[in-house]
Structure to design on (329 residues):
């Protein structure tokens, strides 16, 4: 049985952290693929690139897309190694095991979504509803994957598991749902910026409100409103969950999350004013990932189960498990 004060595994925690960083880099390169229109660089072939393992005389778009596929494959391998390592190094019922297993499943789902974008030709200049839905789903799954990896690293350090009880759970769940929605709408807005670039901020605003405007242009207006609302909520979240009465690490994570959320809203305004240049889009996405990870770890620290696990309780649980495993006559 797992106890909250289980022995930390520093090497495993470091590997989980590097796996998280590797996946963030893959996410950023995926944004480069979308922003440069290189998603069709390998045609409609997957996992092959233009029907070949190593394409001959590749274009720049082909190299960009192929690099994304190779790095995604490396990231998938890292996640699978992490999952196996967790199951070998961590005791039964350790939350790190569940987090790593969840990350492995989400990584497979993420790969399937990426393959679907290519096989259904939802790349390049495609501006369909299907592509917009895929992009939103892609971002949401990515966020969940990063959360699972962050929690794997967190719990591998010996941090206690969470206890989902009380009003703090509700407040944190609302914040997480709101941030997921902001991320999904941001992916759709970025797609609109790529497919329908504007010459100026005024021209872009006219595009968004013109009668008969493409649905991506109309949805582009939603993201800043959602981001501002959720950003304000995240600033208040530490007070709502009583972070001042929590552990020092919880207070620090709450402060970090609030500062990152404030910086993200400010950067979003700059991004909007400068018509979303690719470099600023990448920084905006990186900061979004940082806000999300900070929120997840803040929630884990706030909801940490501080209840003591007595020896007697552990023995009773172990005996009950063994009794349940005995064959019945």
């Amino acid at each position: 049985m797992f106890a909250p004060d289980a022995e930390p595994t520093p090497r495993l925690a470091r590997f989980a952290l590097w796996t998280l960083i590797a996946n963030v880099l893959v996410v950023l390169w995926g944004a480069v693929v979308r922003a440069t229109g290189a998603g069709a660089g390998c045609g409609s072939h997957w996992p092959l690139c233009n029907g070949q393992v190593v394409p001959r005389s590749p274009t720049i778009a082909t190299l960009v897309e192929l690099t994304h596929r190779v790095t995604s494959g490396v990231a998938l391998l890292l996640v699978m190694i992490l999952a196996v390592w967790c199951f070998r190094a961590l005791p039964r019922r350790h939350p790190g095991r569940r987090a790593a297993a969840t990350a492995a499943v989400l990584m497979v789902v993420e790969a399937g979504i990426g393959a679907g974008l290519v096989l259904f030709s939802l790349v390049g200049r495609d501006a369909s509803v299907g592509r917009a839905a895929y992009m939103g789903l892609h971002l949401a799954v990515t966020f969940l994957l990063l959360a699972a990896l962050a929690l794997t690293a967190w719990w591998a350090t010996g941090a206690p598991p969470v206890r989902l009880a009380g009003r703090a759970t509700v407040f944190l769940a609302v914040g997480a749902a709101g941030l997921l929605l902001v991320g999904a709408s941001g992916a759709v807005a970025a797609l609109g910026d790529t497919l329908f670039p504007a010459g100026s901020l005024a021209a872009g605003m006219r595009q968004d409100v013109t009668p008969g405007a493409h649905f991506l242009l109309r949805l582009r207006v939603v993201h800043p409103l959602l981001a501002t609302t959720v950003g304000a909520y995240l600033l208040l979240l530490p007070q709502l969950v009583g972070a001042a009465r929590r552990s020092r690490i919880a207070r620090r994570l709450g402060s970090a999350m609030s500062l990152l959320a404030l910086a993200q809203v400010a950067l979003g305004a700059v991004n909007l004013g400068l018509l979303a240049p690719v470099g600023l889009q990448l920084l905006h996405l990186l900061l979004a990932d940082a806000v999300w990870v900070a929120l997840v770890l803040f929630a884990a620290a706030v909801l940490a189960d501080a209840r003591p696990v007595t020896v007697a309780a552990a023995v009773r649980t172990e005996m009950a498990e063994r009794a349940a495993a005995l064959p019945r006559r």
